[in-house]
Amino acid sequence: MKPLLVSGLIGLASLVLAPSQVRAHAIESSLERLTSLSNSLRLESQFSSGQPASDAVVRLVPPDGGTPIELGRTDAAGSIVFTLPPQASRQWEVQVDGGPGHRDYLELPEPEATPSAPARVSRSHPYPRTEGWAYLPPLGVLAVAGLAGMLRPRRPS
Prior knowledge:
The chain folds into two domains: 2-21 and 132-151; 27-107, Sandwich (Immunoglobulin-like), CATH 2.60.40. The chain is built from two helices and seven strands. The chain has helices at residues 2-17, 136-151; strands at 27-33, 40-47, 57-61, 69-73, 79-83, 93-97, 103-107. A four-stranded antiparallel beta sheet has the order 4-3-6-7, with no helix packed on it. A three-stranded antiparallel beta sheet has the order 1-2-5, with no helix packed on it. The longest helix is centred in the N-terminal third of the chain and has 16 residues, at 2-17.
């Protein structure tokens, strides 16, 4: 019975000591028109933690739900410079895909947009990233429930 008591106490301690919040991080991007190059745009993307969104796939998505056009991938600093294809219009969106749960959608800037006024419209919805500590409270609940079941009084048969 002593091993059960020890495991129950460990479970209870995990409930008390474990962090109560699971952190999530979103992807944040900015898009600006470059004046030095004709019809070129620079995209910079990073996670809310500040880490660059390196190797993220960048696509141009048509408004009618057609096939997206892949423009390339971000570099180690989370940026990419690209030129819009001729069929792209103001209604198209730029999609940054940094992996499962990390997508950002940006509107194309106005043709007259200056570098001092970057366009940024983020509609990303982050999924929570569960860290190792987040699993301790449920395990602690199970351990305490098991301990309570073992310690309840039994009727003699």
